[in-house]
Amino acid sequence: MNAPAQAPLSLVTWNIHGAVGTDCRYAPDRIARVLKEIDADVVALQEVPLGGASHFDVLAVLSVATGWQAVAGPTLDMPARRFGNAVLTRCPITETRAIDLSFGSREPRGALDVDIRYRGEPLRVVATHLGLSRRERYAQIAQLLAAFDRPSLPVILAGDINEWFLWRHALRLLTEHFRAAPAPATFPSWWPVFALDRIWMHPVRRLMSVRVHRTGEARVASDHLPLVARISADHFPLGHG
User: Fold this and answer.
1) Residue 238: its pLDDT value, please?
2) Residue 62 DSSP code
3) Could you give the CA distance from residue 11 to residue 228 in angstroms, rounded to a whole number?
4) Backbone angles phi, psi at 64, to 5 degrees
5) Cβ atoms of residues 125 and 117 within 8 Å
6) DSSP state of 26
7) Are the C-beta atoms of 189 and 223 separated by less than 8 Å?
């Protein structure tokens, strides 16, 4: 008799727009309610206020509200203000790294690279927010792919890619590396047209589903909608595809 399949890991990526909703109201508590509504095992966030002398630490609020561990990945890190990516998770965290993706004089960008364990298996989660120009994104994606130097470890890449044209070379690089993955539209939240937010998995066969979380509060909480994936917890041998 075969052992029952283990419950899949759930992961959400969400650009929270500084916790300012489409109604122009600053409401970290609303972000927390949506996250608890989704109840994912791993949360990758972008545009997160991370504190500083003159700014509120939204990540700390979300960690207290959910009870999950928090890892900050600031791309702007100054005494007055810290801002950038973050990961929340109920899984044990074994290691964290920061990847600097800044490009020339443009806004600082980066990726937060976190190793977790889910039901005893090591997984690598990379949360990122790429730049607004085509040349910038191409350089950032090439740098990210060069950082994926541990092929024996399953990798999840999640974040705001700021690209929706599949035939552009930058996005093709990611698709060729991770293989195709569902990409429903997430932006703008009130009438989603563009698939700016993405979740990829290697090996791709472990990516069971990708969906948009479309509740009424999620539509107002940010200008992006949360993107939710289910990842198979069964331990497949690694390889492309």
Assistant:
1) 46
2) H
3) 6
4) -65, -45
5) no
6) B
7) yes
Q: What are phi and psi of 162, to 5 degrees?
A: 60, 30
Query: Could you state, in chain order, the average pLDDT of each consecutive group of 10 residues for the chain (241 residues)?
Result: 70 98 97 97 97 87 96 90 94 95 88 94 95 89 82 87 73 79 94 95 92 97 98 60 43
Query: What's the CA gap between 33 and 37, in Å, rounded?
Result: 6
With beta carbons less than 8 A apart as the criterion, state whether 38 and 16 touch.
no
**Alpha carbon distance 177, 87 (integer Å):** 23
- 148 CB-contact burial (10 Å; exposed 0-12 / middle 13-18 / buried 19+): middle
Residue 67, pLDDT score? 96
The encoded tokens of residue 43 equal 């949360």
Whether residue 227 contacts residue 210, with contact meaning beta carbons closer than 8 Å, is answered with yes
pLDDT of residue 76: 85
Using alpha carbons, select from 139, 138, 121, 137 the residue that is nearest to residue 129: 137
Q: Which residue has the tokens 């702007």?
A: 76
Rounded CA-CA distance 23/26 in Å is 9
pTM of the predicted structure, to 2 decimals: 0.92
Which pLDDT belongs to residue 235? 57
Residues 6+ apart with CB under 8 A from 203: 154, 236, 238, 239, 240, 241
Does the domain at 9-231 match CATH 3.30.530.20? Answer given as no
For residue 129, give the 3-state DSSP assignment.
strand
Question: What distance in Å separates the CA atoms of residue 217 and residue 19, rounded to the nearest whole number?
Answer: 13
Per-residue pLDDT, 239 = 43
